[in-house]
Amino acid sequence: MNKKEKIILSALHLFAKNGFTETSVDTIAKHAKVSKGLTYSHFKNKEDLLRVVIESTITKMTDEMMRFENFSITSLLQNLKMSLIKNKDIIRLSILLLIHPQTPASVIKLLDSQKLELIELFSSLLEAKYNDKAKIEAELLLAIMDGITMDYVLNPDADILENRINYTIIKYV
Amino acid sequence: MNKKEKIILSALHLFAKNGFTETSVDTIAKHAKVSKGLTYSHFKNKEDLLRVVIESTITKMTDEMMRFENFSITSLLQNLKMSLIKNKDIIRLSILLLIHPQTPASVIKLLDSQKLELIELFSSLLEAKYNDKAKIEAELLLAIMDGITMDYVLNPDADILENRINYTIIKYV
Amino acid sequence: MNKKEKIILSALHLFAKNGFTETSVDTIAKHAKVSKGLTYSHFKNKEDLLRVVIESTITKMTDEMMRFENFSITSLLQNLKMSLIKNKDIIRLSILLLIHPQTPASVIKLLDSQKLELIELFSSLLEAKYNDKAKIEAELLLAIMDGITMDYVLNPDADILENRINYTIIKYV
Amino acid sequence: MNKKEKIILSALHLFAKNGFTETSVDTIAKHAKVSKGLTYSHFKNKEDLLRVVIESTITKMTDEMMRFENFSITSLLQNLKMSLIKNKDIIRLSILLLIHPQTPASVIKLLDSQKLELIELFSSLLEAKYNDKAKIEAELLLAIMDGITMDYVLNPDADILENRINYTIIKYV
DNA sequence: TATGAATGAGGTTTCATTCAT
DNA sequence: TATGAATGAAACCTCATTCAT
């Protein structure tokens, strides 16, 4: 692993653990075992580092989540569950950034685009069953997933999560 | 309105608008048109100010929300909707604080207790219809409301909110 | 002497001695025996401090220089000489700022206005003797004074200065 | 043009445009399209680069200026004028360095020696006309030229310069 | 000769908090 | 109760310089 990647991983870890403003570049550098200066030769500034952190992790995560065995509500929700368990930190950080009023627009854009992708997916999957109600049903399903996600990142209990996702699957298929 | 209240309102407004760490005590004092010193004679420190801000606004908001015409899912969700529209800032701030890793435990406790109250309410309202599934249904309904809330504070559109809440009411009654 | 004045005097002294960029705010604060923070509560930033330093010293100096016994080339040049000896540091700093490519426009404006005042004065004094050549003669006289000034601040020798100013007076009256 | 020369030219350009302290070695290297490392293999450090910049440009400039058609005040002043117009940047930089309190002694020495040469020249040219006053007249003439130079580099207007130099020539021959 | 990753010291600025008045 | 001058720690960022390749 090269030093730039080390910095990104350390930043992700610390931003998720302590928040963006609350994490100093110096702390990131020390955690990655590099100098502060090197951080600034790889990233224009702290905000740029955040952007790259989100960019590189979100894409990786989304790609993973979008690989299905068979294209269905069941496997989509199962994927979401797996991803949530595996990427809890990134996801918590993403929510934090979305809700934080001072998150740079470039980062918000990245996070929003991912959400749009998901709602499209839900819509097309619910079309057969709900016809003209498909869109609002998709929105509600996404709301459920958001609510479950929020609760899980705040209080991570895999059993509870499992339970809720399974129950949701049953309700929707 | 006395000066202490002015400080609390300014703090609420600015914390919601810019975030806790991002709001300086000086900015709050200037916005409330008092001196920095006075702020520190009313509140032990910035964290204490936050606690009081949340304490005083959350209780007020919850009380309001819990006044029903008739005790039913419909009027509860309608109340939630009204409250969401009216108290968007406080609610956004509450979510921000809940998700933020460094929010003091005393504040988290306050916010959590409110959530517990709500889930109790949902449970008892859904018992008649869902029997032994009442608890998980209540959790899912809360998840829906959380998801809808998240989306609304990020992208406040009263029509969309109305639409979703109404559809949810229909689904559950 | 209050602390703000102390900061201004220390800044003047150190800017003149070491240059603007080369003088750190920390050094100024230590020299003035105040904290760095106080400097920033009196002045918006380092550039603002420079502006105030120049503003307050230039006006004081100009006022002094413009007080004549009798309005004549002789007493004007004598005043210039006195001022030069007394305010060597400020004058050296002024030249440094004028010639430095990154001096803020606000500071340049202040310094320029002082020069314009001087050239007006020279012109009116030389009018009687030089008629339509008064303007260019005033410009040359100012050039002489600038040249003498430059040499004096670089190599301060009161006798040489005295000598040159006296010779110049003889040439022009 | 080899890379070392490119570095020197870039440094001259940037030092003149932005000041010595304000120009980073990295900026110079990028402007010269070489690496930072190469700069440090040609020059011991940034100060050394400055010394070489001044050394190589000043000598070239002086040589040029000292080539006369006929040895007279007129042609000397004309040469000075030509040189001033052509080498405005170098000259502005030289003045900046002369006046700057932290310019390394080695650079100051170079710049001073050039001035001494000039005053010798003026003295010998004015001897015939001014006898024992030749030295002080030479000093004043140099002061005039310094003053005119200062004004020109701060506010470059070829017509004004022309006018002043011509008027000075008339006064002295 | 040539590169640029890497370092670490130091500079500017902000801000929570205290305290004399 | 009320003020704001004052402090000092800590944050972001730059840059001269070195060194492995």
UniProtKB/TrEMBL annotation, chains A, B, C, D:
Keyword ATP-binding found: no
Segment forming the signal sequence: none
Pfam families: TetR_N
Keyword flag Oxidoreductase: no
PROSITE patterns, A to Z: HTH_TETR_2
Keywords tagged on the record: DNA-binding
Lineage: superkingdom: Bacteria
Alphabetized InterPro entries for the sequence: Homeodomain-like_sf (IPR009057), HTH-type_Tx_Regulator (IPR050624), HTH_TetR (IPR001647)
SUPFAM superfamilies: Homeodomain-like
DNA-binding region, residue range(s): 24-43
Domain HTH tetR-type, first and last residues per copy: 1-61
Gene3D superfamilies: Tetracycline Repressor, domain 2
PANTHER family (alphabetical): ACREF/ENVCD OPERON REPRESSOR-RELATED, ACREF_ENVCD OPERON REPRESSOR-RELATED
Protein's recorded name: TetR/AcrR family transcriptional regulator
Organism for this UniProt entry: Cyclobacterium plantarum
High-level lineage: Bacteria, Pseudomonadati, Bacteroidota, Cytophagia, Cytophagales
